[in-house]
Hints:
Elements: E1 2-4, E2 6-8, E3 11-13, E4 20-24, E5 31-36, H1 40-59, H2 62-78, H3 80-91, H4 95-118, E6 124-126, E7 130-138, E8 141-145, H5 151-164, E9 168-172, H6 179-190, E10 198-200, H7 205-214, E11 220-224, H8 227-238, E12 243-247, E13 252-256, H9 262-274, E14 284-290, H10 291-306, H11 326-341, E15 345-348, E16 368-371, H12 378-381, E17 388-394, H13 397-405, E18 409-410, E19 412-416, H14 420-429, E20 434-437, E21 452-453, E22 456-457, H15 462-468, E23 470-478
Parallel strand pairs: 1-5, 8-9, 8-11, 9-10, 11-12, 13-14, 13-19, 14-17, 16-17, 19-20
Antiparallel strand pairs: 2-3, 4-5, 6-7, 7-23, 12-22, 15-16, 18-21
Helix pairs in contact: 1-7, 2-4, 2-6, 3-4, 4-5, 9-10
Bound molecules: NADP nicotinamide-adenine-dinucleotide phosphate.
NADP nicotinamide-adenine-dinucleotide phosphate is lined by residues 145-149, 154, 172-176, 204-206, 209-210, 213, 224-226, 229, 232-233, 247-250, 281, 383, 385, 411, 451, 456.
Amino acid sequence: xxxxxxxxxxxxxxxxxxxxxxxxxxxxxxxxxxxxxxxxxxxxxxxxxxxxxxxxxxxxxxxxxxxxxxxxxxxxxxxxxxxxxxxxxxxxxxxxxxxxxxxxxxxxxxxxxxxxxxxxxxxxxxxxxxxxxxxxxxxxxxxxxxxxxxxxxxxxxxxxxxxxxxxxxxxxxxxxxxxxxxxxxxxxxxxxxxxxxxxxxxxxxxxxxxxxxxxxxxxxxxxxxxxxxxxxxxxxxxxxxxxxxxxxxxxxxxxxxxxxxxxxxxxxxxxxxxxxxxxxxxxxxxxxxxxxxxxxxxxxxxxxxxxxxxxxxxxxxxxxxxxxxxxxxxxxxxxxxxxxxxxxxxxxxxxxxxxxxxxxxxxxxxxxxxxxxxxxxxxxxxxxxxxxxxxxxxxxxxxxxxxxxxxxxxxxxxxxxxxxxxxxxxxxxxxxxxxxxxxxxxxxxxxxxxxxxxxxxxxxxxxxxxxxxxxxxxxxxxx
Length: 479
Ligand code: NAP
């Protein structure tokens, strides 16, 4: 049991109200920490510290900031096992995922943006009688708001480019997973960041988060979270002329064609559906399969899903951990009931497993596959964000694309085929920001990451993050 304070001006401080929130372990429901329940006054303190630190930080050289990012990556890497353990306990995710995906990616985020600013270039445009050159300048104080599903992974995906481009930061992580954000604050101090450059405010979205979005001295908001919250954040930030990046929800299709490598497609669909207990914005929560192979594919898929090992997240052989909270498990269960009411068949899962006394209060739910639903059913079109995959059949490429595009979201898709022409044609026709062909979640940090429609506004990654976290200024010199 530990107390997690806000981190302002390199000091650990409680909320001014003196109030706390409980942080529970999803696998046991035990309270593992208390976090500061911050409000507008605490956000004011954090923004003031960030504002004081901003001019000196903006004057540092690119090389100094890149070196700091590398130093942070070094400490993250050194503490990988501890951080993976914290993340696994706090988020209920498997220790294997935390060790192989979440924390290594946090290390890579800082290393990547250290390299990105070292190699950054801005433009020069010659005219016959003038020369234009473009300067990249920090924005000032930026606000970072992140969700609970990939806590350190997503916080560092924003903090690294924000710091590397010379901004000072105030972040508000999800109150459900505060542990590694507090650890990151310590690590950034240990790596040598001056006071005020990185600040952290814990608390609820409607209190601390909203105050951060509305604060007049916060000039940009980078938000990752749900679509409904994104709309509120967008309205508050947009009306105050802030730069805004919104990475929101998804309802992503896994399209399996009859010419796919069958084994690869089954394994890929399982991984896309159930990684992080289905709690990744990119999860393939609807499988669209060509009718001629649908029966064989569905049987193999269901068998593989039913065999996934659910249990103690700290056991390296566990494949499926707990859902983030009891409220979230109840939401997923309501969708299972809805699937039945909509005429679907629960081919596997949907029950609360018996994992022994230690995990009796944990938020576990056996992974679910639903068949027999229309692709337009609510279960098949609304984001559930849990271990639920619906399976639908199609006859033609056009029908598959129409089904995939028939949702409000537009984040990602994966296409499983050995026909190159089909892969290009289908990838081009899908209304999403990202398509994988014969893979899922393969990430090159240079490529644009983000969605269209209800999945967000803007792109992160590589130069897109550098563009977001900076202002370009053109200087035109008459010759
Ligand atoms: P959420 O409820 O929207 O919360 C996201 C963050 O926003 C949390 O820190 C939350 O704080 C805060 N927040 C809530 N209300 C706020 C307000 N009025 N003003 C400012 N901040 C506010 O989302 P979540 O349940 O944590 O995460 C799941 C969602 O994130 C899913 O929809 C998923 O698809 C999406 N997601 C998208 C991506 C992507 O890259 N596109 C990546 C990961 C997740 P509290 O936790 O205290 O409420």
